[in-house]
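Researcher: Structure prediction, please.
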Amino acid sequence: MFFPVGFFNVLYMQNRTVILQEVRSYIMLALGLAIGTLGWTAFLIPAKIVGGGLTGIATIIFFMTGWDVGLTTLIINIALILIAMRVLGASFGIKTIYCVLVFAGLLTVMRPMFVEPVVSEVMMNAIIGGILAGLGSGIVFINGGSTGGVDIIAMIINKYRNISLGRLLLGMDVLIISSSFFLVQSSSIETVVYGFMTMAILAYTVDMVISGNKQTVQFFIISSKPEELRKSVIFDAERGLTILHGKGGYSGEERQVLMVIARKSETQQIFKVVKQIDPGAFITVGTVMGVYGQGFDKIKSK
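Model: Predicted structure follows.
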């Protein structure tokens, strides 16, 4: 059977794009894991602050027994990875295995480098460590991965319910942090409070990273060249749109109103297209709390 050369060129470009996207995804996962590990090993663990999640559990075990934090997280994660592969899909499981191995390796390598905390103030360690750990977790989440542990449980719940990942993580971390007061000899009310503060900062940072990545804007565009603008938005900016029929309140003139929904990161591309076609167009831009449907988020309900 004969296939035209163009067919193979298109197939090659599609495969190349997919491969590049996957490579970028794994690079971003490694970056997020490195940032998160720095927060734990350079600020939280040396300051004797017990955080939440599986890393918090491994930290408690480390303070009690001296067992390596990275090895402990790796052992506990094995069963949870199997659950993730079954519930969230094989691709999630592959990325989770990658994240768990890299994270455990980074914890094992980096923890001995920071015997003492980077800064002397315990509160500063809690703040900086929480921000770095949250930033790292957020980057990992938006690239489809997880460091395992309670992250897996949170993502499973988030798959079926409209509950933010940060809020889920914060709720589950309360029990872990509270238990450190009874299990760790060096723990005190102050360190437990710092642990709660760290997790609040971490959860807030995770939500900011994720919502910032998914933030959506809505354009209403009134132009004297609606047809040209329609084609340019669809084919140049590669965004869909809806045509609404409007009428000038003063002039009574019939006009077409173009409504465009796009990611915040695509805002400048939309402005560029409008400026090229009709620099005098009237545009309003508003932030949208949630967009559900094709190309955006899925509706999650009971």
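Model: The first helix runs from residue 5 to 44.
Researcher: Thanks, that helps.
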